[in-house]
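pasting input
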Amino acid sequence: MNSRNRLWVALTAPGVTWLVFFFVLPFYAVACVAFGSIDPIFRDAVPQWNPLNWDFAQASSVIDSILSGPLRGVVVRTVVYVLIAMACSFALGFPVAYYLARHAGKRRLLLLTLIVLPFWVNYLMRMLAWVNLLSPSGFAQRALSFFGVNYNWLDGSPVTVILGLVYGYVPFLILPLYATLERIDWRLVDAARDLGATSRQAFRLVTVPLASAGLVAAGILIALPMFGDYYTNDLLSRSPNTEMLGNQIDFYINNSSEPQNGAVLVMFLSGMLLIGLSWYLRNTARIGRERVR
Amino acid sequence: MQRRDFLRTLLATTGGLAIAPSVLAACGSSSSSSGALVIGTPQNPVTLPSTGEAIADGLANEGGTMEILNWADYTNPEVIADFEKAFGVTIKQSIYDNEDAAIAKLRNGTLKPDLIIGMTDTALARLVAGDLIQPLNQTYIPNRNNLLAGLQNPYYDLGSQYTMAQFIYGNGIGFRSDRVDAAQVAAEGYDSIWNSTYKGKLAVIDSYRDTISLALLQAGVTDVNTSDADVLAAAQENLIRLREATSPKVDIVSYTEIPAGNRDIAYMWGGDALAMPFYLAEGTSADALGFWYPQDTITANDFFCIPKASATPVAAHQFINYLLDVEVAIKNQTYVGYQPALTEVTVEAMLSSGGIVESVADAVVTQERYEAGARLVSLEPEVDALWNDVWTTFTAG
């Protein structure tokens, strides 16, 4: 290894150390809780640090519940909510990022600041503000009822939870998308149009592929926290009808005598996301390669 | 949103904002405990095992700062200020929103309070088994004689070796009497919570013990600590019926949501019902509120206890005694809402102090009601797991 390579290896050391201490070890600790036992007196988790002694019985019952028990509905609901929320986020966020990157001109910075500004306020505060706005006596509800829309937004409505997720995470989609779109050489789109592509074709065959890295990054950035989110649901719904995986993890870890079930769900969620993302990234890369050919 | 409302909502909704740290906190206790829990029930009262000596008689208080572990807004700040002035002690509060999490933090040393306020008998056996609390020296607490007779020698701690009761409450149904017919609620009783008329406007308590017990009581089962899997399976079916009929909210904020007009009816803690008038919208009469107290219900109380590692045990004893003074307790009630477990704190006394209003006065627990009520006691782990399974099935939707 030459000195230049050694320098780069050395520069990765802090990052690797960080990952080991703040991802690998905590994840191992979660596994030790998941496959450990429960203190018979205090009902808290007794982690089993030796993998040779891991007990999979409790994890197995949780997996059974996910496959055919009450947790199946929670998993399906979580996936559906997140997919719909992501679709809504892309539908809302992509045009905004596109406009900022391509048409905002001198007002770009101002508009970007205005979009991001509300999100400097704490997430909890913003959600509590929505609770007040959407309550039957709230301003938004009164305004909507003026137009004949009478809907109880806070009675455990999936629509409200999904809207909450979109509202909470859409800026995290807009920013990376904007950063990607802003770097696109728009002359390539002009060239496509010159060569006879319709605007729709130019968008689909030139803009989207060029923005694919940003789309993937933005999608991952919002999908990961949405899957684990529970406080949006707690604040805007608090109903069994909208229970998500994060809520069940919260219950098991903070309010039940079976904290290891929560740890199993954490591992399940991580595994599900890892498999899903790997599949998605692999597919995206394959499609990219095919396009190049 | 008022400050108390905000704080409670904040705690209720962010109890586990950091789930991963909670998982990791669980790793702090790397060894399993030994021994057995000593759990008292009204049928089998217990004398708790001795875990040490109480402080000596006649000591002067330590002065300085006393740290209290307390629920949010569970002691009137004016009462605290009065005590600080009278006894030369500065009080600092730490807040907890979950007994189990608090016990875990007491065990691993994250929390080192000098006095704990508001724990219940479901936690007591573990506090004693973990050698976390010290025996009380009752000579410092002459006001213990003000407590309701049954609570001067409670079944969970005969002789009040470790605990001194504070507030008392019973579960029931709170409602908006301008939207719900009070007579109909009284006639239907627990069935009101299953009445689909209230779909989307109804809530139950976000506590698996309380709400599963509701399902048991509604079905006529009075053993609210049952270990019978078949009975629990029936309760589960009952809760699913409830979910399908009324789409209930599952939270602990009905005391603000009912007065705000956001829901019409809820199964709730009676102490919360007494606090409802504080949260009425301006211009709304307190007559718009109502409470139905069931004949078969759960009654409970919380208590004070002093950690073994308390640095100010004398001041802690003095504060307990101070809060058990009738006048101080009434002043405390006007802020907290919950009813002090003192004989002289009657409905009339609280009405005249403005601590409660007539329309929800039925939430007050008398000595007779307290004794007639069922108690939730600690469950054995395998039984508790059954209860957890029922709750998961209900909340999973």
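fyi Chain A touches chain B through 63 residues (CB under 8 Å).
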